[in-house]
Amino acid sequence: KKVIILLIGGIMKNNFLSKVFLWLCIGLLVSFGLGYALLYSEDLLIVLLNNFSIVAIAEIVVALIFSFGLSKMSDTTAKILYLVYSGLTGVTFSVIFLLFEASSILWVLLATAIIFGLLALIGSKLKINLSGFGTFLLISLLGMIVLGIINMFLLNEALDLTICFVSIFIFAGYIIYDINRIFKLSQFQLEEKYAIFWAFQLYLDIINIIIKLLRLFGKRRD
């Protein structure tokens, strides 16, 4: 408990770290808030679901613009793109709210929060160079994406479960890697857009873990 309290205290005292975690919380609240709200707007939800492929493409486009155009964009543009991406993900989560029982979703969210807390603690304490670890994670992730695409045609349930399990470990590794880099970058005076960018990285890690855990352990509605 003392270690966790010290970690939280360190985050609050560091301006860059506090901004990263603030924007992370904002993104998650936008996604889950919008996803839940759409359940009560049936007409709008139907329109969005009928155009789900457009939403998915828009997510990819926004993510690419955000990732590769960060150096040239302003803080305001970074905020807008991050909130737009969080909103688009909220549409995806409206589908999840429809498919899975609320209690199942809550348990997965709690499990993810605990996992994130433990991994963030590990990442903040590691003093070793993790640059090579990042390359390994990227290659592993690309491998899982390729296998996932192949399995869209094979429809092999055992392979799907394996991909989910391995993906969870990959994104868990990414949390350690990203937190470690964030803590190192916090020593410098950086523009807010970089705090938003790293919040976006953690956001992606968390969202992917939630989705994989639901696919493995989520209880679907009857």
Q: If helices are DSSP runs of H or I spanning 4 or more residues, what is the number of helices?
A: 9
H and E order: HHHHHHHHH
Instruction: Tally the beta strands.
Output: 0
Question: How would you sum up the major sheet?
Answer: none
Strand content: under 5%
| Distance from first to last alpha carbon | 40 Å
| Poorly predicted ranges | 1-6
Description of the structure:
The chain has helices at residues 2-13, 15-38, 42-50, 52-68, 75-99, 102-125, 131-154, 157-185, 192-217. Residues 1-6 have low confidence and may be disordered. It is mostly helical and 222 residues long. The chain starts with a helix and ends in a 5-residue tail after the last helix. The protein is globular. The protein contains 9 helices and no strands.
What is the topological layout?
Blueprint lengths: L1 H12 L1 H24 L3 H9 L1 H17 L6 H25 L2 H24 L5 H24 L2 H29 L6 H26 L5
Helix pairs in contact: 1-2, 2-5, 2-9, 4-5, 5-9, 6-8, 6-9, 7-8, 8-9
List keywords for this structure.
mainly alpha, globular, disordered N terminus
Write a brief caption for the model:
This protein has 222 residues and is mainly alpha-helical. Helix content is 86%, strand content 0%. The N terminus is likely disordered.
